[in-house]
Design a protein that fits this description.
single chain; alpha+beta; 2 domains; two-stranded antiparallel ribbon
Length: 138
């Protein structure tokens, strides 16, 4: 994990800010905006400008905070191989599934949202599921 990845991960914490270090040309990531403590990560001015240009950071008062695009980038950096696109849209979980032969195996995918759970439970007047398996898979 390089300095930029580390800084983005630390900035993803609630209340974290990126501010210029006192007496130095670098920026530091401070937990809960507390600049009295040692920074969680350090970035150069050039790295900060690159992240701001890419949309990962935005100016806030006298510091920078992470944007939604920055959070998505941080999640992509930590994703398992082949899951970088998926994790920026939601949490990927591992769960047990039973294949058509009755064998229990592990599969990775999105955790169904509470809205989807409610849609799965819906039935029509005849008691048939409101959504079929193909619609749920989509």
């Amino acid at each position: 994990m390089n300095a930029v990845e580390k800084a983005l991960m630390r900035l993803s914490l609630p209340g974290a800010v990126l501010a210029r270090k006192a007496g130095g040309p670098h920026f530091g990531v401070y937990a809960a905006g507390d600049r009295r403590r040692r920074p969680l990560a350090k970035l150069s001015v050039a790295e900060v400008r690159t992240l701001e240009t890419a949309g990962a950071l935005k100016a806030h008062e006298d510091s920078f905070v992470i944007t939604d695009a920055g959070r998505a980038r941080a999640r992509r950096e930590l994703a398992a191989p082949g899951e970088a696109f998926l994790v920026q849209h939601g949490a990927v979980i591992e769960r047990s599934v039973i294949d058509k032969h009755g064998t229990l195996r592990s599969a990775r995918g999105f955790e169904p949202s509470s809205v989807l759970h409610r849609l799965i439970a819906l039935r029509d007047a005849n008691g048939a599921p409101w959504l079929d398996n193909g619609e749920l898979a989509a």
